[in-house]
Design goal:
The chain has 298 residues and is of the alpha+beta class. Helices cover 24% and strands 35% of the residues.
Length: 298
Amino acid sequence: MILDRDDMRVYLKQLQEGEERDRKDYDTGRTFFPQKPDLLFEVVLDYCFSKKLYDYGGELTLGYIALNILRENCLVTPMLFEKFRHKGYWKEAGELLLEHIFDSVLVYGENKCRKACEINQVQIGTTTITKEEFIQKYYKDDIYVVMYAYYSDWTIYGYFTEKSEAEKYCLAHPEMELDVETLHCLDHRQDLSKLRVAYRHTVSFRQCNKTWFADPKSNANNICKTINADQKENRYRIRVLDRNDCWDAKIEITIVSDCDDRAATVKTAQDLLYQYLDFCGNHPDRESAAEFSNLNKR
């Protein structure tokens, strides 16, 4: 399965003629092409990412792509079902397919007749794309990260814009056991214009001897989380925690804001704290906290 970017709705599933689990899908896809393909892919929509279908969870077959290979050339024949055409799915699937073709050695054929080939040119309809053109268009802004990695232990030391310079840096520091990783620039890879960013902050307050103050330990550990601004969520939420040996009362205030400004958010949380205490008559509990939180939905 090819799935290079987590946020892509479309992915490609390579179907193997000889695999029992793929046989039905392969036979179905094969019927759409007059010539038997060297490689066959199913175009799949993981529609838990798609609001267009008003449904969540599951997969939907959008069509098939046949690849026929002649030496270093590859002929691509896409076939999307009519109701899925002109909706942007082929653009996503086509980019994923080109990445797969140009970034790997294609293996095709069966048993003793299997062949391996590195593709330098792809033809899709009347359009011809060379490997060099693809790299210039999609990878021209790549950076090459110098890092140390050992299982979950990893450290990034910096990056170069030229891969050879990054490799030279690794050679210059053999004692550090460095590696070079390529990071692709994702600018303009997907239409993100309809998404808006919001920030979720949590601010904690404790009461001791009838005095409320910000809880420095809890606040130091609270990290701002980026969320989709269109996500249905209260503008703020107040949570009352049970009393224990460390405090007489504790209140957590979570605020969703369009601005990533921690200091301003803490000030807003302080104002909300005293508004809530006035609302509940200085007797905080879970029921009044939920009622107060629902007064101002996003």
